[in-house]
Here is the input.
Amino acid sequence: MYFESQLLKSVPGITHGFGSKFDPVPTSVLKSWVDARPTWNQVAGIEIATIIRKGQICGDVDGFFTTTKNPIGVKAADCVPILLAKKDGSKVAALHAGWRGTKLKFVDKFSHFLEAQAEKMSDWVAAIGPAVGGCCYEVSEDLVNDFVATFPEMDADMISPTYRKLDLQAVNACELTRLGIGALDIIAECTYCSMDKVKGPMFHSFRREGAGTRQWSVIGRI
Ligand SMILES: [Zn+2]
Here is the structure.
């Protein structure tokens, strides 16, 4: 079981998938991922590696960009995976935005990264993958207040739908919209509470299981 964005599926020459507990690497991208995946350390920062070769070693990064046919992806278990593609399918990107990356405005950094290459956000589309939802992501009151102060243009009730809960998917969606993304899709699944009726929890969740288990969100040109 893995999840796809109908929006990304409409982009020509692209394959992608958001993994689950049952298929941590989406089967749609498994072969190319095993053959050519980069190596990196996710550090909850906002650095972006440009992939130019198969099996590239990238160091400490939380985002990827490529015009090559090597697949790129991020691993997450509650944090927000964001997969992006240029509408013509010529370029793709992947970002890992937990609360740290979101508060550091990773999406805004990505828009500057594109601008530096004479790219426009309006020529790109994005899909926000499964993440711990505003239903379940309880944090400190101070962290909620930090987010409200960091994003003063956003509705505080959207950032924090109920007391001490934080909705990271909504904050990233709002940022992508503000920055003029061409189109946006959200996979409305919560890594903490989404359940399969027979198999139980559908996702690895850091909050539920602790460290060490993850699912991958992968995108690549074909
Ligand atoms: Zn939930």
Observations:
- The chain has a mean pLDDT of 97.
- The pocket of zinc ion is lined by residues 133, 135-136, 190, 192-193 (CB under 6 Å).
- The CA atoms of residues 48 and 63 lie 4 Å apart.
